[in-house]
Amino acid sequence: MTKTIFITGASAGIGKATAKLFAAKGWHVIATMRKPENEKELNGLANVTLLPLDVTDRKQIKETAQKALVLGPVDVVFNNAGYALLGALEAISDEEIVRQMETNFLGVVRVTQAFIPYFREQKAGLFITTGSSAGLMGFPVSSMYDASKWALEGWSESLSFELNEFGIGIKTIEPGLVATEIADRAIFAAHPAYEAIMNRFTAMLAPDKAVSTAEQIAEVVYGAATDGTNTLRYVCGDDAKAWYAQRLAAGDEAFREGLKQMLAQVNV
């Protein structure tokens, strides 16, 4: 029987790459995005259905989840919609703070809530979320983005206990930098007082061989959906694996001090 995955944020990046990979593997894909009428690639695939979804719209979340379930059984929900809000907290408006949390955290929570009753009745189902290495360790001038990803970590670990009671799984994908994602989709809040640290941090993150492609992360998502394990976290990408191993080996304070020293040595 053909399996179905429901994907949020499928218009670009990891979401689109995941939709294409699962479709190629024979899955039925329900790819959601804010403006499906603008999609020119996924709409050409026979086993992909496009639906509109803005994860900050609570009413639309419920409506789109119901539309998806009318189409047939759903096996996996991939909560992927999100973006990076970078910059010093002093430079970020209240509206930007709320938007970041509404999208990256509450959007995931609400989409998950919309599907839990169905999965509970089925006594099966899997939620996969796009987290980040920034949910495992804090980085400079990204406090609100990191906060949204750290929130997902505690939420999913706690939620796993109640979901597992009904045979429902929950997993988080933890990539590091993904090619084009930071430059093309991030929002940068500028403030002259923090220009130096912002420049050093962005220079430190300059793309190199450690950056993953969206297609590589999509492969991790597919593995998480099909490996049959109860694994909670999938740290992926050479950069994320290296940073996280360093964090675990050094401990929280030593890692933070090392990152401060590394940042101070960056030439811009």
Short synopsis of the structure:
The protein has 268 residues and is an alpha/beta fold. The protein has 9 helices and 9 strands. It has a 7-stranded parallel beta sheet with strand order 3-2-1-4-6-7-9, with helices on both faces.
Characterization of the model:
With 268 residues, the chain is α/β, with parallel strands linked by helices. It has a single domain, classed as NAD(P)-binding Rossmann-like Domain (Rossmann fold). It is 49% helix and 15% strand. It is built from nine helices and nine strands. The chain has helices at residues 13-24, 58-71, 94-122, 143-164, 181-185, 195-204, 214-226, 238-250, 252-264, and strands at 4-7, 28-33, 48-52, 76-79, 85-87, 126-130, 169-175, 187-189, 233-236. A seven-stranded parallel β-sheet has the order 3-2-1-4-6-7-9, with helices on both faces. Strands 5-8 form a two-stranded parallel ribbon. Helix 1 (13-24) links the parallel strand 1 (4-7) and strand 2 (28-33). Helix 8 packs across helix 9. It is globular, with a radius of gyration of 19 Å. 40% of the residues are buried. The mean pLDDT is 94.
